[in-house]
Amino acid sequence: MTDDAAAITLLIVDDHPVVRDGLRGMFESAPGFRVLGEASNGVEAVALAAALDPDVILMDLRMPGGGGVDAIRELTRTGARAKVLVLTTYDTDSDTLPAIEAGATGYLLKDAPRDELFAAVRAAAEGRTVLSPAVASRLVSAVRTPRAPANDPLSAREREVLALVAKGTSNREIARELFISEATVKTHLTHLYAKLGVKDRAAAVATAYERKILG
């Protein structure tokens, strides 16, 4: 695809100018791609997508002034033609699942090799789903794990902590297993106690089983 008219057109969305410059330079130096514009947040992205009508939008997720997931939802709601390929440093459940559910065609991490990114954009332009291996395994795990009821107020991380508490795991062991600090474990416990309306670990586990958040 060397013909400019046949090139895949792109909109780059990232709050870091250096990242945008790097991506623009990368795509403009490769045949078959044409960068139409750049946006620094999700709100700008939605407006520019309407004005420029790109084939593919490279979308970061966490941006001041308008996040990527909200932008993807709005693009889906308005029936935008562009395919959204998430390109971010985050691969947690709280980032991955909402982005895919909002309508993203693909999800790659920023450490993806150059050729993998080019291939992903081509695939996205054709409407094919593209997922980095880490994200794909998370999605498979999420699909295989029964979801908590809709009234479950806990975040994915809080449910992880609660599941370990139910196994009798200490705060120190939970911290080690989840690669977080003990202070963070205590914060998660404080939040989930408040959400479940309980005051200790035993009550939290009992309430979680009662509400079918666990089990």
TrEMBL record:
Q: Which InterPro entries match?
A: CheY-like_superfamily, NreC/VraR/RcsB-like_REC, Sig_transdc_resp-reg_C-effctor, Sig_transdc_resp-reg_receiver, Tscrpt_reg_LuxR_C, WalR-like
**Where do the HTH luxR-type domain residues begin and end?**
147-212
**Sites of the modification 4-aspartylphosphate?**
D60
Note whether Ribonucleoprotein occurs among the keywords.
Answer: no
- Pinpoint the Response regulatory domain residues: 9-125
Q: Which Gene3D superfamilies match?
A: 3.40.50.2300
List the keywords (alphabetical). Answer: DNA-binding, Phosphoprotein, Transcription, Transcription regulation
Q: Which Pfam families match?
A: GerE, Response_reg
Please name the SUPFAM superfamilies in this protein's record. C-terminal effector domain of the bipartite response regulators (SSF46894), CheY-like (SSF52172)
This chain's protein is named: Response regulator transcription factor
